[in-house]
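Thread title: Can someone regenerate the structure for this chain?

I was given the following input by a collaborator and told the matching structure tokens would be attached. They weren't. Posting the sequence so someone can regenerate them.
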Amino acid sequence: MKRILKNLPVLLLVVALTSCSSVRVASDYERNTNFDEFKTFAFFKTGIDKAEINDIDKRRILRAIEAELLDKGYTKSESPDLLVSIFTKSNQRVDVYNNYWGAGAWGWGWGGFGPGWGWGWNQPMVSSRTEGILYIDLINAKKKELIWQGQGTGYLTKNTERKEERIKEFVNKILAQFPPGLN
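Best answer:
Regenerated them for you:
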């Protein structure tokens, strides 16, 4: 039992970190749109240039989007049906966990009913993570109207080897909801 209590903070931290590894997605679209009429795409440079992200990550995102759309049967074109734009947000999240471990007894004491004696310790844990949000906008190129938007929210990594994999995971999960009605 002592061993379990001793390792409990570590186990809780592992569970917390592994549960945060997923990407939460949502999408919205114009209900009156016939998505079957769209066959080609291009990137909307004006919108992409406004995305507040470094150029290396921006290229990683665009490559991942291009690969997903090509896999779905769309063709990249100079005169596209769809324009693809992105934007990003990030939030620094700080979690503080106050862990009080110990035992005690309640009974009559000085000042009335309250804790009489006990032992324990307070072991606060602080973790800091960056939560990122990636928006992928699909715009009707002829009408210049937003027809579909996907959003992915999840935790980012600073590990450069894992970063490209994480970006692909974001894009894959977001575009899994496009076109609407297939999922």
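The mean pLDDT is 82.
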